[in-house]
Structure formats: C-alpha cells, structure tokens
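Thread: Newbie trying to understand structure tokens

Hi all, I'm a second-year student working on a class project, and my supervisor (Dr. K.) asked me to get a predicted structure for one chain before our next meeting. I've only ever worked with sequences, so writing a 3D structure as a token string is new to me. If someone could post the tokens and maybe explain what I'm looking at, I'd be very grateful. Here's the chain:
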Amino acid sequence: MSGHNKWSKIKHTKGKTDAIKGRAFTKAAMAIMAAVRSGGSGDPELNSRLRMAIQEAKDVNMPNDNIKRAIDKAAGGGDGVTIDEIVYEGYGPAGVALLIQVTTDNRNRAASQVRSTLEKNGGNLGASGAVAWIFEQKGDIVFEPGRTTEDKLMEVVLDAGAEDIITHPDGSIEVLTSPDAFMKVREVLEKAAIHMASAKLDMIPKNTVKVTDPDIAKKVLNLIEKLEEIDDVQNVYANYDIPDEIL
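---
Reply by user tm_fold:
Sure, no problem. This is what the structure looks like when written as tokens:
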C-alpha cells in the first residue's frame, strides 16, 4: 500500500471517513471558496478548478445548499475573510516524505497545528522544496476489485487522455491521467456507467520508502490520520510503501 489512493487505502479509511462527514464538508467548503477566489468566478462553467471542487464536494455527499453557500460566500467577498493556500513539507517516521496541503482563514493557527501534530507524532517540518520534487500531480481514478476489467477500461479511457492503467495484486485497478485530462476521463467513465471507488487529483510519489516494521507502519499511518483530522488540512500525501500483510 503506497502513499496514494489505492483500493486498500480506501478500505482502510472508509469507516473513519464516514464517521467525520462534518469535517469532510468543512474541507470541501474551503476548497470551493479557494477555487472561486483563485479562478475569479463563481460559475463552474468558467472556472475548471471550481468545477472539480464541486465534484469532490458531491463525492462526499455534501448537500447542494451547502455548496451554493460556499460559492456565494466566496463570490461575495466572504465578509473580509482571507483564504490562504499553503503547502507544508516534512517527514514522518522512517523518513517518509509528507506533502501537506492546507486551505485556511488563519495562517498562524494552521502552521501551529501542523507543526505540533508532526512533532507529537514522530515527524518534523522540512524546508520549502525538501520533498515536493518527489511528487507529481496526476488524475487518479480507482476501481474496486471485480467492478471492471483492464480491457474494458482501455476501450473507454485511452482516447479520452488516460496515461496509464494499473492492475494491483488485490484486484483493484487504477487509471492515471494528466491533470488537464482528468475531468474528461471521469466524464467518459460516468457515461459508460463504470463505478469509480474514488476519483480525484492526487500527488503521486515518484519514489517510495519501504516500511516493513509493523510498529513503524502504525506510527506512519497514525501521523497521517492526525494530520488529516486538522480542519485546515485538505490533503496529506506520503511516499510510504507498506506491504498489505503488514496492514
């Protein structure tokens, strides 16, 4: 299980995700507001980043009224609220690289919480650029074991711009795309009625750190979980490689 979304990770975290729906809505609203501010428009037809943020909000079952309120708040200036997007870089146990994406209305609070969580759980902050080079942004679409086949996916997604199709040992399948092709590939999959376990822009590690000690693996996953529990943290990416038998 490497540090990006594969079916094994989805199974591992789904129960926790279901239990913290309110936090998921908060994160989705912040992502929508940031997309409106950065894209200069509250119209998803004119703002591709907003279109993706809305889709991700729908993926966590955020109600349409909540989505509209987030758009209206950002488009209306948000009563003077400033939304900052920050990427923190650091390390976890065993030297695992961490890329922590934050969207916040309080930079000092976010920095303090990220730093404190790292230090209390066996990690530390790194300098800017320390680990960013390890990761590459890709569209990452995952299919549960038995839901589809590699041959079927090739028929549907290659012409839409998919870059790679990977079948994992557990039977799950992963389709990788460039960021620009991601929405088009997702749309053709929806039209073909092929169920996706997850579909998002992801940061894929170009190299990984093998973690075979169960105690260290537990510490790595615990640190990532604690970081994800911070409301200001949108995403945590890591380059660990934990064998399924260790999990």
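A couple of things are worth pointing out once you decode it. The longest strand covers residues 135-143. The CA atoms of residues 36 and 42 lie 5 Å apart. Feel free to ask follow-ups in this thread.
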